[in-house]
User: Fold this.
Amino acid sequence: MDAVDEEIIRCVLQNARSTYAEIGAAAGLSAPAAKRRLDRLVASGAILGFTAIIDPQTLGWRTEAFVEVYCSGNPSPAELRQNVERIPEVVEAYTVSGAADGVLHLLARDIPHLEQAIQRLREAPYIERTESVIVLSRLLDRPRV
Assistant:
């Protein structure tokens, strides 16, 4: 991975639908050279795929929260993942250091919808309790590297 590859990645992070000419201009390459480099980044696994990013608010999902999960016993990360995968409102999930066993990012239509999702989450026998914080506003949302 060199500076040219990083420019290509930066360009497709900003707009995954960039043309090879646009990618090449950003990275100082011709369009065919940009295509070859981009193809190599995909083949090597540096770029895992391309996707559409949907604004959840346009779908009516305007409530956002982060939920700390506290477990009894010692469930494995795979068990936690299996539990949260079945809840579509969970859009991100992490195991973490500290008092909580996991932190989840949830999207929902409204507070009652969020509450229902959290109740479904608590159905797992090893989830002892949860603590939630509701997002008031997003201050920054950068493309992820």
The chain has two domains: 3-44, 56-134.
